[in-house]
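Figure caption, in words: inputs first, then the predicted bound structure.
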Amino acid sequence: MQNHLNDEFVFRYKLVGSVEHIKSGKDQLFLSKMVKICCIGAGYVGGPTMAVIALKCPNIQVAVVDISTARINAWNSDTLPIYEPGLDEVVKKCRGKNLSFSTDVEKHVAESDIVFVSVNTPTKTQGLGAGKAADLTYWESAARMIADVAKSNKIVVEKSTVPVKTAEAIEKILTHNSKGINFSILSNPEFLAEGTAISDLLNPDRVLIGGRETPEGKKAIEALRDVYAHWVPVDRILCTNLWSAELSKLAANAFLAQRISSVNAMSALCEATGADVSQVAHAVGKDTRIGPKFLNASVGFGGSCFQKDILNLVYICECNGIPEVATYWKQVIKVNDYQKTRFVNRIVSSMFNTVSGKKIAVLGFAFKKDTGDTRETPAIDVCKGLIGDKAKLSIYDPQVSQDQIQRDLSMKKFDWDHPVHLQPMSPTSVKDVSVVWDAYTATKDAHGICILTEWDEFKNLDYQKIFNDMQKPAFMFDGRNVVDAEKLRKIGFIVYSIGKPLDDWLKDMPAVA
Ligand code: NAD
Ligand code: UGA
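Bound structure (nicotinamide-adenine-dinucleotide present):
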């Protein structure tokens, strides 16, 4: 189907010439009467994705709706609810013109021709599949609401990452309540990465659209493809069946995470043998069949999706009676957990087997640079591990607030992935954790530093000054390989860098207790 649809599209596209031509309305095939898009869920995906659609499609009205009043207020203010390079500019250009943010979910859904659903799909914490399966509560309530308020035919687009065959369930909910209205379900998973969301959206490797292989399904695919064709080259818009699109998203995240766990597994072996993981990754990545991306060893991957989506994949494999495949993917998570534990153990064992009462400066808390997002950040597990050994933490991250860090450190696993106002409250702040607003305050009088996010500013700190103000011996544990270890050693630091040849000090210390 994919080739057939793409060939047909390319052929017709050539006939009409260009997107400008399409925009001018000369080709009604592409621009049907569709004028309004609504997106349910104004989060990290819904907000930026819709802002870019609005930017690139001035002829389309885009409304982003959410049940969280605080989020919508922030989208309508000068301080957007998420930090993402380039996002402010795009939103400012379109907001008030063809882009709006609203809590009036039902009104905008009722008025729209295409409804994207980009709500949370957390890991279940209770009942069947707890700890693995996706909790589709929010998706299901969105689908029921669409069915309730719709008065005209709609294309409903899965933007959230969902288990394979979710579209079937959604179709049942919609058609069961349809009052004669036609709903076409599409899967259009999002591949943006945080920190680069705007450039990923403006210039995607591919856009994937899955739909039913029926005449209505193909029409719906075309309508959505027309939207993306405003700025995405047509050979990058892939069309598949629904199940392939749903599974491709889980597969892509699993493959990406697997590369990180592979290089992190190698980092442990490098430390044991004297090899250097950066050199190994460089040599391996030079093979064009492997490629250089996603081979940076780290303290572990974080983010809202890798773990969640792999657990989801594992659950689907188990439900389909293929435990060997489930075990294969589970190992990606296990290695990631091992990497975080190994890092904590390295710190404790290096510092005379105890960090009790010692001040440890934590530089970076976000799950990667250029975002304030802390969902599943490896910093949570590392900090909890150090707190478990009674360390006193002084944390600095340029984009993460004290309130967020305290919430993260006191929240239960998986509880973060719910709309903010429905998250379990985390009333008590974690003792022995202070959050400060610069790296020099964090490191003053510290016994050790650990770098957990690769913020650029950590490369260029005045490490001589930091060393002078620290307790001795002064330790640096670089979980992101951002500092120049040789330079720091010359200053006097004992340096541990992930997957690099070890200082003599660290050589005989057990990496994992
Ligand atoms: P998010 O938590 O930032 O946003 C989800 C939003 O949906 C929240 O603001 C919440 O209030 C709202 N919501 C929940 N139920 C609702 C309802 N019934 N009606 C209206 N609003 C509702 O989550 P996100 O990071 O944007 O992720 C959304 C989906 O996209 C997830 O399935 C995720 O796996 C997937 N995804 C995320 C990323 C990413 O980089 N964050 C990338 C690709 C895919
Ligand atoms: C990831 C994917 O890259 C996106 O394609 C996908 O859409 C998204 O998940 C999703 O589904 O949510 P994201 O989590 O935003 O995007 O960020 P990544 O750049 O993938 O980083 C994920 C984690 O892996 C971070 O903690 C990062 O520091 C870590 N990482 C990444 C490494 O440790 N090493 C690397 O080489 C690359």
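Residues 275-506 form a domain with the Rossmann fold fold (CATH 3.40.50.720).
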